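Section handout, structural biology tutorial.
Before the tutorial, make sure you can parse a SMILES string by hand: atoms, branches in parentheses, ring closures as digits. In the record below the ligand is magnesium ion, and the chain has 571 residues. In the tutorial you will relate the predicted structure tokens back to the input. Do not try to memorize them.
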Amino acid sequence: MLRTIFVLNRCVLMAERTAVRKGMSAEEMAKEQREISISEFFEKNKHLLGFDNPTKALLVVVKEATDNSLDACQDAEILPDIIVKIKSIGEDKFRVSVQDNGPGIVKEQIPRVFGKLLYGSKFHHLRQNRGQQGIGISACVLYSQLTTGSPMRIWSKTEGSKKGYHYEIFINTSKNEPEIVKEEEWVDGFDHGVRLEMDVTARYRKWVEDYLKQTSVSNPFAKIIYTAPDGTKTTYARSIDKLPRQAKEMRPHPYGLEWGSLYRISQATQSRGLAGFLVNEFSSVGATTAKEICKVARLDPNLNPKTLEREQIEKLLGAMQKVKVQRPPTECVVPIGTEDLEKSLKSEYPNSEFITVRSRNPEVYRGFPFAIEVGIVYGGDLPQNEAAQLQRFANRVPLLYQAGACATVEAVKETDWKRYGVQQSGSSLPVGPMILLIHMCGVWVPFVSESKEAIAPYPEIVKEMKLAIQDAGRELSRYLSGKRRKGEAKRRMLIFERYSTEVAEALANLTKGDKSDIEKKLKSMIAEKMTFDDTAGNEEAGGDGQSDGKTTPVKEKTKPATAKPADVEKK
Ligand SMILES: Nc1ncnc2c1ncn2[C@@H]1O[C@H](COP(=O)(O)OP(=O)(O)O)[C@@H](O)[C@H]1O
Ligand SMILES: [Mg+2]
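Predicted structure of the complex:
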């Protein structure tokens, strides 16, 4: 009985609930459902692109434009001359302009490049570049119009043409299409390249200088002239006059491929048979490997790839992971290189005591080749008792935010710095007068987010970083123990010098010689001893032989001859 009452009560309650429900019906919801434009999405979610605070916003704008200029110049094989200016135009409002001497952008493409998100030249190629998604610069246009209501101004002139074009562009966010406000020919001005000007709400901090200085370290072939809001002009000079070699494009490697990608590639291919498809569309697959893959997958090598069914794709994918496929070609990876990196660091930090750089041989992660480089700059005017300054780079682009989420920080913290004679408490950053540079370059860098601020700490990547750090650490340790030994010897000599008069007197007594003569000789012997020979270091030789390195034990208090610090001038 009780149970019946209880069940009845529940039924009544439920019926009441249904009756009073004021929510939407599926039909009503259907009226609200429509496509969301990518621009409108990012207008609401600008933090995903790095525009989460006004300080960062200014940096992102400078960074996106400068990275594009560097990419364009490098692709066109032009030594980049980049002019960056930030001008204050009101409370929390800045006008940012970036000009390059690159190949320029053809007239027809200008509106789409700047007025449409997800439009670019790099997305469909597996090639080492700074940019990738075709979001960078149009996101800046979006931010600028959102915060100041003003359009992006563009001047572009292509190489060899007399006239250039000037545009003013907004993004129509509901359509993700450009809205051209102004379009005109333009004759005077620079020979070729692009000049951009945009107004943004932002806050100015020294981050911009940090970004430019670090950009200059990782791009020693670039010249950057920067004018800060207070009119201070800084020139980051070129420390080498040669561009890096062109990065080769690669096809996807079978390892690490996913079902959807394999399906997409199979639908787009021109190949008619499965074996040919594998050879043509993938990296490092020759005829024998292709046959082997078909055999393991139990699929006919002549099967038309466009007709593959879901299970067949799955089988093929499985076989592609099982069969031994050669590593992807490593020419796709273009590191800075030990020689250029060393020159660059010397020129940016001319007062340092010691510099060592390491460049690891490329490794492969999920089918993508990548390489890690490390540089250590030690001593000189770097702060003594602070945590080492970590400079992180991905494809030559400095990463200034989200350090905590970055593979580089994990690798540095997991390194036992005490082994190399550097202070470290627990597993935190090492302490000492030191800059630690870590660069990951490759066809694909796994960023933790769309704003590309940190490298995802996948174990394979962290491991390579640690190996590079250890290599450089050993070199530093050799230098530091040599320096310590020299310090001890010097102390001993100073004590000897202090008592040299007494010693000379005793010796004169014993030998019946001339005291002042003996003292003179003693002093000259001590002085000779104090100008040490520089043969420090007998630490364990180490490393796994997988890296290339360069070291500069800059003599104490001697400035390298190549010193070319950023030249700062106040207007
Ligand atoms: N300064 C420039 N010179 C030449 N081409 C440029 C320049 N800036 C941008 N571009 C072109 O515009 C495209 C879109 O740029 P962007 O939105 O930053 O995307 P991404 O750099 O990721 O491709 C680039 O792929 C490039 O083709
Ligand atoms: Mg870009």
